[in-house]
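[[Sequence with tokens]]
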Amino acid sequence: MKTIRYELADGIATITFDEAGSQVNTMCADWQADLTAVTAQVMRDCTDIKGIVLASAKSTFFAGADLKGTMRLQPGDAQRVFAEIEQTKKNFRTLETLGVPVVSCINGAALGGGWEVALVGHHRIALDNPKIQLGLPEITLGLIPGATGITKMTRLLGLMGAQPYILEGQLFNPREALALGLVHELVVPDDDVALALRTAALAWIAAHPQSRQPWDEKDYKMPGGTPANPKIASMLSVAPAMLKQKTRGLYPAPEAALAAMVEGALVDYDTALRIESRYLAKLIVSPVAKNMINAFFFDLNAIKSGRSRPQKVQRTLPRKVGILGAGMMGAGIAYAQASRDIQTVLEDVSLENAERGKSYSYKLTQARVDKGQMSPYDQRALLDRILPTDHLGDLKGCDLIIEAVFESRELKAAVTKEAEPLLAPGGFFASNTSTLPISGLAQASARPKRFIGIHFFSPVDKMKLVEIIRGKETDDETVARAYDYVLALGKLPIVVNDARGFYTSRTFGTYVMEGATLLSEGVPAPVIENAALQIGMPVGPLAVLDETALSLAVHVLEQTRADLAKEGRRYTASPGELLVERMVKEFKRPGRTGGGGFYDYPAGQKKHLWPELKTRFEKPTLAWDLQDIKDRLLWRPSVETARCLAEGVLTSAHDGNIGSVFGIGFPAWTGGALQFIYGMGIAAFEKRCAELAKRYGTGFELNDATKSAIRQHQPTY
């Protein structure tokens, strides 16, 4: 066998998972075959077996499904997948029902299929390590737990108790698992982890010569009751509607998981397993599952492993970081740093401003203290790591200084010249600009090789993405150090090359401006906003423009016009940009912070669309097409992402996908703006682009270079 070792000694059958040539154990095709073989061997030896131990030779217990194999599946493979799932369950069931005790020795992470393997054990012993993650995260990948996970967790925790761990993919550590009754015993780590786990397993086997699963006992009752229980039935009657409200019908996995839970709870155990298998077999070959697996497994792992980071640079971590500007962005960066044990100097023009910036960290931490999520001691330690000041001299010796001042080239140049000399030897300087080209800002630097863009998103404490922008002269060492810094904050760095708007702001701009363009054409504002929600965008384009400020969009437009004018060129604004300019200059509607924009914000009431949008822009005779509106809002940022790839602003598909999902809220079901293209098929995407370009303009056109770039970066598995 290639993935499993089997040994029978002194009546104990030890099944050790050890996939050859892999750092982790997976449910690959070889493992499935080996599981059948080892189960057959156990049956041959059953008269000599007193107990079974499930163990791992890896540093983790079991990683779960073979996701590369999953990505290669086609819709016609569903029947074969169903048969394979059923065979795996048959093997599990055989081991569970021999009558002898089965013990799972969990030495590390057991996620997805790995946790389902662990659940084969009648008794589960885990290493007492809070960093170990256990559970069923399949829902986050567009899948469901289909190798007994739904059926067993529902029978162990009940229909209501299991929902967070199945429908939300909530993970838990060994101690939390012990409290839930999902793990029965913890072993304190020592020099020989495997021996400690095995010793505990043998002791339990000796004390329990006969064992079976709880649901195989005659007196078993489902915790909380079955769907026939009136209390459970009343809760389940509203559950599908609540789920639909969250998924908007775009994510089939949570709906399938809920159905498998409820249907499985109405029947016997073995029938419940078949129900679970049918739902998984259908989901696993679906486009949504592939899109989400690509983004939230392969692309995220590429980011976390540093695939876009220059490889020949030693990893570093800044000990002291200065922030220029204590506004909302600077205050947020200060909190992100202090919460990760980085000494922070928060500088502003006045001590009052700097103190106000620090108070943001107090507000965030106090909320955690009040909920019992943080001790007052840890809160004080965090706050002590932030030094508010109005003295530039306090920045002396910083390994990194980040300017987070207003989007003015002149102001940014002034603070750069003032603060850069205070850097520690070898330190580097960063701008938090969201639109201004880094190469232009670097002209104010005495060391442009050590100047870079680090673009945080607001609110910093909640937004995971950080865009690292390499200027024309930025060297590899600076890019690598910026990457290490962002990872140290627990955030997701993407690396892009310098251009106006970089990647995220540029692509985000196409989404919101396409919404404004639709309004300028006479499409009703409610239709635009609701169409965006129906495709899975978190917020409609007009609402987003209000939040980010229409006046800021106009400022960027004016800056772009001025910059191009200096180069002897003229900028042609889109219909959407012109409409936003009218909103600000003609109608005095600058956005939410200015009192109102596309929406009104009455005090103490729910916001609503500005009534005059209907009279000023809507065209009652316009024959608009809802599918076209949806497609324009989805296709426009995808086209712009592909253009960024062709122009070299993006250099990888994983940066584009993660940047679009975590930066601009591109729908997660698509897997990101580029996976959206690959998921539907390049030819189909190009065909629809041609149709949209013919009807709605050049924003949807794909030139030969863009088409070539799309094909060049298509992932293979």
